[in-house]
Amino acid sequence: MPDRNGWLTRNEAAECGKPLYITGGPGWRPERLKGWAILPKYRCAQLKAHVEATEQPIAYLHVRNAIPPYSYAPLYARDKQQIEVSQLTPGELAEAD
To answer: Which of 3, 8, 73, 87 has its CA 20 to 30 A from that of 64?
Structure first.
């Protein structure tokens, strides 16, 4: 069961069936969704593309320095019409193409 911020444990992340990004490891498993900016909740808010209360994560990010047992942060998909593309970082922009 996710914590109050929607983070998952390792087992929950493995069982959820959504793409995972493993930091410092193999990267995306399986392949990431193409054509979308995949962002954490705080970054969506910075880009004024807020996460709705009922919106489900599209993927999860493994955060190495997270406090166990919850170490997988939820990620949300945003297309180029939802965000100001000029405010994306180079890494975010490359992923959105």
So the answer is: 87
